[in-house]
Amino acid sequence: MKTSLTWLNEYLDNAIDLHPKAVSDLAEKVERTSVEVDSNTTIASGQNGLVVAKILSVIPHPDSDHMVITQVDAGEPEPIQIVTGAPNVAEGQMVILAKVGAHIINRENGELIELNAVKLRGELSYGMLVALQEIGFSDKIAPKAFEAGIYVFNETDDVKPGDDALVALGMNEPVLDTDLTPNRADMLSMIGTAYEFGAMLNKPVTLPSFELVEYEKTADSQVAVQIDDQELVSKYALRVVNNVTIKDSPLWLQKRLWNAGMRPINNIVDITNYMMLTYGQPLHAFDLDKLNGSDIYVRRAKDGEKLITLDGEERSLRSGEDIVIADESEGLMLAGVMGGLGSEIDNNTKNIVIESAIFNPSLVRATARRHNLHSEASSRFERGLNWDETLNVLDHAASLVDELADGQVARGQIVAADDVRKDIRLSLSTQRVNDILGTSLETDEIANIFDELNFVYEKDGEKIVVDVPARRADISIEADLIEEVARLYGYDNLPVTLPYGPTTPGKLSRQQRQIRASRHIMESLGLNQAISYVLTTSEKSQLFAEDKADGVVTLNYPMSSDRTTARQNLLAGLLDDVSYNVSHFVPNVALYEQGRVFIANEPNEQPKEIEHIAGVVTGNLQKSSWQKSKQEKAVDFYDIKGIVESYLDQIGVDNVRYVATERHENMHPGQTADIYIGEQYAGFVGQIHPKVTKKQKLAPVFGFELNLFTVFDHVIDGIHFNPISRFPQISRDAALLVDQAITNSEISATILETAGKHLVDVTLFDVYTGENLPEGKKSLAYTLTYQDSDGTLIETDVNSDFEYIMSELQSKFNVEIR
């Protein structure tokens, strides 16, 4: 929130020193005691040479159809000639003059520039008449559009030629922009901030006063309120003001608004915003004559209901969830968020209704998120309001309308809801405070802190019973009071001690070590780590999911339409990463990702989180070169399967099986295998279906996805490594003629089961099908390697073992040894 220290001083008896050095010290104290300060600045931002000037005369420029020559009184002995093209310039106006030598902000780049006398179409101009946007005001806070011309003071603004324009406009007022935490709703108001600063400076707070004059005409004769559901609103009251005059607000009010980052609009709207800034209580004003009927309804939105809000957007309301303030035929505003265009205050408004309320904060928060309509009002309703001020603010606003808009306040408030706030009384002992903070404070010292905070309390020996004020919705338990004591006592003053007692050295858990090892292995296999969004679309979240019958985890209020659902697989995100790289001319991609997927549980239960690891490869495994021995080779199924095999082997998993499958809808039915560890399913590997990759114009992409919880359950603890044998190997080759239905895995498994202890490797080096073979047959050629760790093998032992293996193969599979 932007806090003008000049304005704040009105409530603190000018206790704040506005010298730049003192303001910087105050900002540092606020950061150490209360909330973060984003900036400490003024709108002036180093500008100078700006004065108030009166236009004495205006004559046409002899050589221009859009410029004029003016003589202005800037409080100097002689008038100053200014040439300008402002469309609204007129004799008698009080305007802002940037004199020769003045420094003003360049609207294009925000830098300071110095003004010099210039000739415009042959006529000298000794300065420049400026709009607010030309001296540091953004379009967001300037009351008039830049195209409307120069800024003109009103007759009631109490300025004279020669006055410093920066002072007149409040541009020299120091402003602290604080970054409030969600719990400090009290500091979204000037009074709440005054209490906070008063506590830090040990100064009392003077609350604003006003005098309300009511006229004979009653409010309840003009309007009535009906509340359909008491859960929607805790407090709801109206004031009616008749015969108002819509005009610009006086300069003092406009200054307060634009220094707070708000744009002045007209006197009625400005009063409601001024009250919101002062008390933290949002108000809304309706044009009474635009209502259909005399009844105002506080209700939930209806099916198919539409509402055009003040920003000109048509909103489709959600039945039963959005709170609507309505008349007999249509909605008037989206309660707690934004008013409706149909009942807007305009220049023809004569009779108004001012509303003050406390709406259900949960519903307001949901509405603001659903419509992406976070307003100054909604931020305050969401965080909590001061229940003690709801009706008082309404009276203060009505008195200002009487004063600034010549209105007549109708007699009586219309109070439709006025729930009583439950008092919060908290007991705190001196011993407890000192035990928590490590201090040795006396009871009176703690009581003095509550005096500074302006809390009402009672002392009972070493106990203090505090009545928490309504403005401090963030205080509800004993710990909150102790935090207040710590803040005001000063965090820097708390004693510092070293930790004592036994300490436990930190270390990674078994699962954390295995995850870290998994990453290292993947990177050693040539894959780069990728990190994808956990949130994705509903379609992508289930693209490679194991069971689409499992419920998806969706967000009620997503940030965007492509971040609505928690992922159930990692491959979809990796596929997006491949597409991104290929579109940026990186065709050879090898990526892996380790992270969690989310499976929905029963309603109102947290989703199940499962650790996965996945990888993808596409493009060429190696590039061709001028050397004939190095030819270009595209990745294939065996490359990705080899990565999975190497990973599982290095992580310490054995007894792995690969079973061909067609059950994965988005994987190639002829090049996909399910992965089993023993009898437990662990994941899958294969080619992503061409129908998926074709949409993104990708070359064949191969991938895998594994359930790490399953993998880690089968990791063999205490892996033993055998020394490399110093003795020579002996190999035997065998070509086997077998039926087409017999697989390599079956042959290899039989060889390993049958062989003696010296067989160390079985390699399939050739597969042949074609001419010169009987129909339905194929030839598989193997190399069997023998080695002994303790001595040199004897030829006869190897031959004997080899012959035994061949006989077993002949017996089991009816193979023919070629």
Task: Provide an overview of this structure.
This protein is α+β, with helices and mostly antiparallel strands and 818 residues long. It folds into 6 domains: 2-42 and 174-198, Phenylalanyl-tRNA Synthetase, Chain B, domain 1, CATH 3.30.56.10; 48-168, OB fold (Dihydrolipoamide Acetyltransferase, E2P), CATH 2.40.50; 214-418, Phenylalanyl-tRNA Synthetase, Chain B, domain 3; 425-493, Phenylalanyl-tRNA Synthetase, Chain B, domain 1 (2-Layer Sandwich); 510-713, BirA Bifunctional Protein, domain 2 (2-Layer Sandwich), CATH 3.30.930.10; 730-817, Ferrodoxin-fold anticodon-binding domain (Alpha-Beta Plaits, 2-Layer Sandwich), CATH 3.30.70.380. It contains 20 helices and 42 strands. The strands form 11 sheets. A 7-stranded mixed sheet has the order 28-31-32-38-37-36-35, with helices on both faces. Strands 3, 4, 5, 6, 7 and 10 form a 6-stranded antiparallel sheet that branches. A hairpin with a 7-residue loop joins strand 3 (48-60) and strand 4. Helix 5 (251-259) packs across helix 6, helix 13 (510-524) packs antiparallel against helix 16 and helix 19 crosses helix 20. The protein is elongated and about 125 Å long. The mean pLDDT is 92.
Separation of termini? 88 Å
What is the overall shape? elongated
Which CATH class of the largest domain applies here? Alpha Beta
Question: How much of the sequence is in beta strands?
Answer: 25-35%
Radius of gyration: 40 Å
Main location: cytoplasm
Catalytic activity: tRNA(Phe) + L-phenylalanine + ATP = L-phenylalanyl-tRNA(Phe) + AMP + diphosphate + H(+)
GO molecular function: ATP binding; catalytic activity, acting on a protein; magnesium ion binding; phenylalanine-tRNA ligase activity; transferase activity; tRNA binding
InterPro entries: aa-tRNA-synth_II/BPL/LPL (IPR045864), B3/B4_tRNA-bd (IPR005146), DNA-bd_dom_put_sf (IPR009061), Fdx_antiC-bd (IPR005121), Fdx_antiC-bd_sf (IPR036690), NA-bd_OB-fold (IPR012340), Phe-tRNA-ligase_IIc_bsu (IPR045060), Phe-tRNA-ligase_IIc_bsu_bact (IPR004532)
